[in-house]
Design goal:
The chain has 5 helices and 3 strands. It is mainly alpha-helical. The two termini are about 30 Å apart. About 15% of the residues are buried. The model has no long low-confidence stretch (mean pLDDT about 85).
């Protein structure tokens, strides 16, 4: 979908406002529908940056959107998490289970 820069900026402002109000489902829909960049991170990045382990995954169960894997068509679909939602949820975890290096980004 080819959008003009003015429309993209309007959508980005709208998504930023939704994220500020913690309306993650609406923001996720807009980000996925219009394929806006810099709002979502994949599972491997989430695990690397935020120390999101399998145990935490079972406890928290973050919402995600699935997308066709761009690297290998036969691989499982990518799980894309909203970075703002992940930060918000993981910030509430005990200190020893979270790397704060990327939470203050």
């Amino acid at each position: 979908m080819n959008l003009r820069s003015e429309r993209k900026q309007e959508l980005r402002n709208q998504v930023d406002e939704l994220l500020k109000n913690k309306e993650y489902e609406k923001a996720r829909y807009i980000v996925n529908y219009y394929k806006l960049k810099d709002y979502q991170i994949c599972l491997s990045t989430l695990r690397q940056w935020y120390y999101y382990t399998y145990k935490i995954e079972r406890d928290i169960n973050l919402n995600y959107a699935e997308m066709e894997n761009p690297h290998y068509s036969s691989a499982a679909p990518m799980r894309l998490y909203l970075e703002a939602e992940a930060k918000d949820v993981l910030r509430k975890r005990p200190y020893h289970t979270v790397r704060f290096k990327y939470l203050n980004k």
